[in-house]
Design a protein that fits this description.
alpha/beta; Rossmann fold; four-stranded mixed β-sheet; 6 strands; globular
């Protein structure tokens, strides 16, 4: 997709104590900083061929939302803090950034485990039932911005 432009957002660092990321991403949140540094470098290497079409914002998703104009995006993909609070915060900050008819999507819908926070937050945010959310491969979920 030669005209596709991506904005990649992640803090690529150990979350501060008490952060909701510890609740929703128990394994990832406990990695040492060196693991986050490696992941950041790996990301840079993967997007290098497309560097003229990729913007990287090394900050929280809530901080990054301040830099993006409402209605300016065709889609978003949420795969950060998997806690109920984290998903609600991301949806609150980012849904307005997606144009009407655009796609709001994310990862780890139930993911075969006992943590249902992502699914519960998405349904609560959109005031809908699980059957109203389109599901796809690898626990990915989709909803059109109405």
């Amino acid at each position: 997709m030669p005209k596709l432009k991506l904005i990649l957002i992640d803090r690529w660092c150990v979350p501060p104590p008490g952060d909701s990321y510890f609740q929703g991403s128990k394994v990832m949140s406990r990695h040492p900083q060196s693991r986050f540094d490696h992941a950041f470098q790996d990301t840079l290497n993967k997007v290098k061929p497309f560097s003229n079409r990729v913007k990287i914002l090394k900050m929280t998703t809530i901080q990054a939302a301040e830099y993006i104009e409402d209605g300016s995006l065709d889609f978003i993909f949420i795969d950060s803090d998997h806690s109920y609070t984290g998903v609600m915060n991301d949806l609150t900050c980012w849904v307005s950034k997606v144009r009407k008819g655009g796609l709001i999507s994310g990862h780890d819908w139930k993911n075969g485990n006992t943590n249902q926070d992502v699914a519960r937050a998405v349904c609560d945010f959109f005031h809908c039932k699980e059957k109203d959310i389109e599901l796809s491969y690898n626990n990915t979920w989709f909803k059109r911005n109405e």
